[in-house]
Amino acid sequence: MASSNRLAGRLVPTALASARPRPTFAARQHLSRPSQLLPSGPRRYASSSSAESLPLSRLKVALWSTSIALSGFVVYLYVTDTRSFIHRYVVPPALRVIFPDAEDGHNIAVSALGTLYDLKLNPRERSSSADGPELSVSVFGDDLRNPIGISAGLDKHAQIPDALFALGAGVVEVGGCTPLAQPGNPRPRMFRVPGIDGLINRYGLNSHGADHMAMKLRERVRLYAKSIGLDEESVLNGEANVPPGSLLPGRMLLVQIAKNKDTDGSNVEEVSRDYVYCVERLAKYADVLVVNVSSPNTPGLRDLQAVEPLSKILSAVVNEARRADRKTKPKVMVKVSPDEDDESQMQGIVQAIFSSGVDGVIVGNTTRDRAGVIPPGVKLDQQDARTMTETGGYSGPMMFDRTLNLVGRYRKMLDSYSRQVRHQDTIDKEAVDSSLAAIEGTLTGMVEDKAPTAKNNGPTSLLGKQADTPKVIFATGGITNGEQALKILNAGASVAMIYTALVYGGSGTVTRIKSQMKEEMKGGAQKK
Ligand SMILES: Cc1cc2nc3c(=O)[nH]c(=O)nc-3n(C[C@H](O)[C@H](O)[C@H](O)COP(=O)(O)O)c2cc1C
After folding, report:
1. What is the rounded average pLDDT of the residues 500-507?
2. Which NCBIfam families does this entry report, sorted A to Z (predicted)?
């Protein structure tokens, strides 16, 4: 304070000020007039004052610049932090007002996020404690920093996976991507239902095609490889010690694939070729490939969830994924609809999962079923009520209970199927063992080395091997807060994925959900 008073030159204590000689008029004039106009007489006094004021004004400028720079830095830190108020309470409502068409709002948000990321001005999770050991989960044998994912459809063309990871997600799913580019359904095809924080969409899998997405993902790997002085192949083969898809430790990139609309859904061979084409192009860049057979907006797509076509398609995808030109192969998951929820349909899907060797299932998607999506007691305004009659898949918080129920049921079915397979395998092995023993008995003395038995060296069936590795579940549908995410995980999922909550809650949603989860866990521990 004292020094700033001295620097300012005005706020000196009165006693000191009065002790100083008062500047002459000329000198006072000098303070306000250019020096060449000064008379020569009082020059000495004037020049000594000038020598004093010049560094003073420089200091002032320096002080101002520093404080402006500091304030700018503080604003930058605040605005680019996912916890900032504006990401929740300013940006999402502003997008709704400025872009009445939800797809326009979505496109602008995606390209703005991409541009901000390139300029290093993107919102990001800055707090180092946002994850922490309590949120870490093991998925497919690898550690994931946290169990919150961003669901397919938000980054359909793999334009901004890194900007989405920066929001704090442990998992980002890009796509759905079809083999050939297709435009999707005519616009408008995305609608907001703000009264219930819901969305309806009938995009119909608009995609730039698998070659385009492969090009985008390859470019990303190349840039990353260059930044750490490796080549593309080394990064894909794990030499950078990061997953080859996400390129970030403890995170996973999911790449979702689907069939083209024009491909005849009743011809399973043709459909399989569509998926296999996508795998050929994209497997290298994915930690997990997701087979989409559940979008409600591609005619006939969900029929592929019947056990026979599903088994064939998934087997084709798994086989192709195992051939991926990379040291570690991507895992394969299948995304299933919440509308195929009767016991026999679900059993069929579980059977197809085991018979094909798929590693897991993403339970949920948007729904065609409008029953129960409006909370009791809520009366929609006219606009929302009209929007609810639009054709397409609905998503929003009211889907949560259905998702939770489905996750619990799939968990039970998958585990019970796995037990059955193990049991059956043991019976088969015992049968093989006893027949081999009988044969060995008749051969005793004739051969020195024992033939390998099923017990000591014999083959285990493909299903048996799978039964030893539990099938992984990711969940999507109506997850909005930390308490719900925890419930989903406790019901048997490894990852809780979000989309609509991000649209309404803004880019701090992932951070918020994680901190709510921690609070919930702390609360639970204290209660105990
Ligand atoms: C506009 C929009 C586009 C979507 N596109 C896809 C897609 O391409 N593939 C897919 O599997 N799911 C897609 N989904 C579904 C989401 O991935 C998610 O499963 C669903 O919205 C339920 O989750 P939520 O309640 O968190 O939104 C889309 C959803 C929305 C709202």
Report:
1. 98
2. pyrD_sub2 (TIGR01036)
Mean pLDDT estimate for the chain: 88
Across 468-483, b (16+ Cβ under 10 Å) vs e yields eeebbbbbbbbbbbbe
What superfamily in CATH does domain 136-373+383-434+459-527 come from? Aldolase class I (3.20.20.70)
Over the stretch 90-126, which tens digit does the pLDDT of each residue have? Answer: 999 999 999 999 999 999 999 999 999 999 999 999 8
User: Taking the complete model, does pTM exceed 0.70, yes or no?
Assistant: yes
Average pLDDT of the residues in 345-366: 96
Query: Nearest 5 degrees, angle CA 309-CA 489-CA 287?
Result: 55
The residues spanned by each domain of the chain are 136-373+383-434+459-527
| Ligand 1 mutation target, pool 182, 292, 395, most atoms within 8 A of CB | 395
Verify whether ligand 1 is closer than 6 Å to residue 109 (CB atom): no
Any ligand 1 atom below 6 A from CB of 105 = no
H-run or E-run covering 498: strand 495-498
User: Which SS3 state, helix, strand or coil, does residue 57 take?
Assistant: helix
If one residue of 173, 208, 499 were mutated to test the ligand 1 pocket, choosing by the most ligand atoms within 8 A of its CB, it would be: 499
Q: Which of 295, 356, 494, 515 is catalytic?
A: 295
